[in-house]
Amino acid sequence: MQQMSLRDRTRRHFFSQCFVGLGNIALGGLLANGKLTAGNVPRVENPLAPKAPHFTPKVKRVIYLFMAGAPSQFETWLYRPKLGELDGQPTPDSFLEGKRFAFMERFMKDKLKLLGPRRKFHQHGQSGTWVSEIFPHMAGVVDDLALVHSLTTENFNHAPAKLFFNTGSTRFGRPSMGAWLSYGLGSESQNLPAFVVLRSGYRSLMGGANLWSSGFLPTTYQGVEFLRSADPIPNLSTPNGISMKRQTAKLEAVRDLNLARLAEVGDPEIGTRISSYEMAYRMQTSGPELMDLSTENQATLDLYGAKPGEQSFANNCLLARRMIERGVRFVQLYQTGWDHHGNRQNNLNEKLDEVALTVDRPTAALIKDLKQRGLLEETLVIFGGEFGRTPMGEIRETVGRNHHIENFPMWFAGGGIKTGQTIGEVDELGFFITKDKVEVHDVQATILHLLGLDHEKLTFRYQGRDFRLTDVGGRVIKKLLA
Length: 482
Description:
alpha/beta; Alkaline Phosphatase, subunit A; 9-stranded mixed sheet; two-stranded antiparallel sheet; 13 helices
């Protein structure tokens, strides 16, 4: 290799080829100037160290199965035979007055017609809960669930509605629920993040990484997305040609530089940065081991319908169980493909069957697996989308339904939940709630409550005011609790 003359060398060349240790140089300079002594080297507290809850929790961790796109309640959980009887009839004016529907204004002149359920319903379990035929496996665990029919939300567009469920606001920039939980409780794991996100489905996820952002909380609390690929955690693997010794030396130098800067300016975000580097270093071992499903026995793989190496909702459900076993506090699975407007890509015919088939078996398997391992009593499992669908049809290329915020279902299972019950009632056509209205902030308050957190006390001061996940709302859903 041709030698460079000294005049051709730049500062970048010097830093890239210096093996003395830049961090040690920085620390040495501070020591020489008396700014830093052995006695006042800043101590970096682990921001994810376990923290005491406000009161005794019912559960320790959460698995949230988010059905992105908004499943139709009329083809899943809400049995409305009267709507079937009136299939094709004009929608009563009283139901439409003063209401707005996404994409629906152009159809108003044509007098929107009611659309009866496109799937059959049957009662299941000792609870006699009505479940659509598209969920035969979940129907088998219905007594382990608590179904809430009377959810309502504020926005009928996908991205703002998803943000509202995840951050308590329809605007970007607020911390997500998983970030709030990490901030309030820390993590039980030293080798994995407190908050992990897994995605599946053929469509993009509206809202994207904003749904698991830390917002104005320190970045250490944001969700970490794991990918189903050879490199499941982006930017974690050691680059080719870099030895472990060289990588360790680099990390030590970066830590020393950050410590020097922390001592100088006292910015807590620098401590977060140091902890993040250390976590990433430990995850180089724990991450690949976690993602390797080949260590599971065949009976477990068959239960979920999981196949090692695939990118699927089934694999993600199994991974969620493995994560909570290892101390991950909040695992969120997003499955896209539920936005059934009535075109070839999204409809209530074969496309609904496809996505239902994708989630039904793995979801039921997750409940069974957690239960048989004794994990369900310490875990809260949630299933639902960002809003519901209209009782009116939306006929495009084929049959579908529009967005509906007036009522939609979710279910809950696990510790602290009174299972085998249905909460809330809606009218016979499925338009409006008639009993036990539940708002999104109520769901968030209840989740925090089950984890031992008072939603009014879990706050963070930002720009001169105290923020919280539930903003100025939120009531714990007492009927949901055991």
